[in-house]
Amino acid sequence: MTIEQLILEQEQENREIVEALLEDGSQPDADYVIEHHFSGSNFDKLEKAAVDAFKAGFEVEDAEELELDDGAIVFAFDAVAEHKLEVERLNKDTKAMIELADKHGIQYDGWGTYFVE
User: What GO molecular-function term can you cite, just one (predicted)?
Assistant: First the structure.
């Protein structure tokens, strides 16, 4: 899949996630903590991506070492932002995160947030 296809797929997912949260009653005017997830088997590449995410204005959480079901070791970190649950902003940020992951040869694993009552 090309990077352009990944971005388009992510934009569709962004719309679906926002719609689902709002339909379930999450507050439309609240500020949301948005966690963008990254992973990779090469710690140095992941660390360089974390620096770029920080330079782009995201709060970067410490990397964690995880063992997969097959015994392989991967490293992961989150780049965090706080803002309204707006599809346009999410599209802009996820495009930047996908491009960042591609640049460093790591995986962008999407984003998550929490329901706000």
Answer: enzyme binding
In the predicted model, what is the mean pLDDT of the chain?
A: 96
User: What is the pTM (predicted TM-score) of this model?
Assistant: 0.94
Terminal Cα distance for the chain, rounded: 37
- From 35, 34, 117, select the one nearest 83 (Cα to Cα): 34
Q: Are 31 and 83 in contact (CB under 8 A)?
A: yes
Q: Where are the domains of the chain?
A: 3-113
E-only strand ranges, 1-117: 31-40, 59-60, 64-67, 73-84, 107-112
C-alpha to C-alpha distance for 80 and 34, rounded to whole angstroms:
6
Segment 36-80, tens digit of pLDDT: 999 999 999 999 999 999 999 999 999 999 999 999 999 999 999
Neighbours of 67 (CB within 10 A): 9
Question: With contact defined as beta carbons under 8 Å apart, do 73 and 67 qualify?
Answer: yes
